Amino acid sequence: MLISTLAAFTLTLGLMPAQAESLPCVGSSIRVQVALNTALPDENKTLIREACGRLSRFVKQHQLEVAPGEFSLEFTQTVQLVLKDHAGADQAHARIFALYDGEQAKIQIHQYSIEYVQTRNVMADIPMNRSYYISILTHEMAHALLDFRLAALGAHREHATHEFFAYTVQIATLPNREFVPVIQLFPKSEFGGPLQINSFLHFSAAHLFGVMSYRYGAKHPQIIQQIWNGEFKSGDSLIEGF
């Protein structure tokens, strides 16, 4: 029933030669543009399909009407977050696992096979595996999905709300074997209300923020529709007011 609402949502995967291969993503009309490059293993295409499948299931479960949009995806050997000062000059660089750049509509993620990925833990304490890697890719795709929806509505983009949504999608779509260890983390930690969902907590304790986001969303499922309709106000709304 939702397929007709999902047309024109496209993912373009780099590197970017002239030719590209198209893969389905969210629904049969949603396409992933995969560049035909020998540096792109078939395994990456499989990872994309599985991440798109998880995202698609979340969209159908919550009956979300997807806005058209296009973003690029690059598997790379390193991902750098550039930190800028108040004047906009580069201040520092930090290596991170994956990144969605809303201004460029681009996802960067480390190649699954490299040592940096294979030796990392997920949510601080859980050993990495293929399914957790796919969950991180799904998280970044969720950012893009929400970005296009809010842009179509002309709604304000809050950082904490974006991260709340992406973590909820990431954790909610994990297979049970990977879901259980994650949801058992930080067992006594919960948000007391929307205003506690803020960027200060995300920047200081991202993994804690992620698990608390899923728990709050599971207890208050209406929040997903509020976010999707541009109606939700996180604690960032107060921070931005000062």
Short description:
The protein is of the alpha/beta class and 242 residues long. The chain is built from nine helices and ten strands.
Element order, helices and strands?
EEEHEEEEEHEEHHHHHHH
Measured between the Cα atoms of the first and last residue, the distance is: 44 Å
Low-pLDDT parts are 1-8
Give the class from helix and strand content and strand pairing: alpha/beta
Mind telling me the C-alpha Rg? 17 Å
Coarse morphology: globular
Total count of helical runs of at least 4 residues = 9
Number of strands: 10
Please state roughly what percent of the residues sit in beta strands, choosing from under 5%, 5-15%, 15-25%, 25-35%, 35-45% or over 45%. 15-25%
The major pleated sheet works out as: 6 strands, mixed
The level of helicity is: 40-55%
Q: On the 0-100 scale, what is the average pLDDT?
A: 84
The neighbouring-strand order within the major sheet is: 2-3-1-4-8-7
What does this structure look like?
The protein starts with 8 loop residues before the first strand and ends with a helix. The protein has 242 residues and is α/β, with parallel strands linked by helices. Helices cover 42% and strands 22% of the residues. Helix 1 packs across helix 3, helix 3 (130-153) packs across helix 4 and helix 4 (159-172) crosses helix 7. A hairpin with a 4-residue loop joins strand 7 and strand 8 (106-110). It has helices at residues 42-61, 115-118, 130-153, 159-172, 176-183, 199-204, 206-219, 222-228, 236-239; strands at residues 9-14, 20-25, 27-35, 69-76, 80-84, 90-95, 98-101, 106-110, 121-122, 126-127.
